[in-house]
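Sat 14:20. Reprocessing the chain from the morning session after the first attempt stalled halfway. Input below, unchanged.
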Amino acid sequence: MNEKRLKQIQKFLRMGKWNYVLKRGVLFWGVSMAVLMNIFYLIMGVGFSLGFILVTTVIFLIGGLIFGLWTWYLFNKKLKSN
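Finished this time. C-alpha cells:
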C-alpha cells in the first residue's frame, strides 16, 4: 500500500468508528444512493408515492450503515497487515 493511501486510512480511523460510519456510510453513501435511485425510479416510470420514497430511503440508509461498518473493518485489517 502506498504512503498516501496509508495516511488516508489513518485519517479515517482517527475519526472514530461511529463518526466514520455515520458520515461516510450513512450520510454520504446511503443518502446519495437513495436520492440517485429515487431519481432513477422516477425516470423509469416506477409507481411513485411518499411511502415508496420512505421505504427506499430507509433501505439505503441501512445499506449505508452496513457499507460504513464493512469499510471500517477493511481499513483496520489493511492497517494491521502493514
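The chain has three helices and no strands.
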